[in-house]
Design a protein that fits this description.
The chain is of the alpha+beta class and 107 residues long. The chain contains two helices and six strands, in the order βαββββαβ. The strands form two sheets. The protein has a four-stranded antiparallel beta sheet. A two-stranded antiparallel ribbon has the order 3-4. Strand 3 and strand 4 form a beta hairpin. Pfam families: YCII (PF03795).
Length: 107
């Protein structure tokens, strides 16, 4: 099962310890074959909407910065519970804030 884990921006200012702990976490998940992709996201983005034959492209940002997704990890795990546990570990490393977990369907 694949899950997309996203994190919202937080007030936490990263320091060397946080970077080191995250690097260890990412290395562990990569070595276990669980982590498929990870990265930060540009808060501005581009919105593409369609209505009939008309397609409109609009530059962002669209949401308040605190409502935008700041980063993601795509993982492949055996269960929803395993995805939740990985997200709990992530939140323990980065501190207060909000994350979301969504199962990814398809091949």
């Amino acid at each position: 099962m694949r899950y997309l884990m996203t994190a919202m921006p937080s007030e936490v200012v990263p320091d060397e310890n946080l970077y080191a702990e995250m690097a260890r976490f990412v290395e562990e998940l990569t070595a276990a074959g669980v982590l498929l992709a990870t990265g930060g996201l540009d808060p501005a983005g581009v919105r593409v909407t369609s209505s009939g034959d008309e397609i409109t492209v609009t530059d962002g940002p669209f949401a308040e910065a605190r409502e935008a997704v700041a980063s993601f990890a795509l993982v492949e795990v055996r269960s929803r519970e395993e995805a939740v546990e990985l997200t709990r570990r992530f939140r323990r490393i980065v501190g207060d804030g909000e994350s979301m977990i969504q199962q990814v369907f398809g091949p």
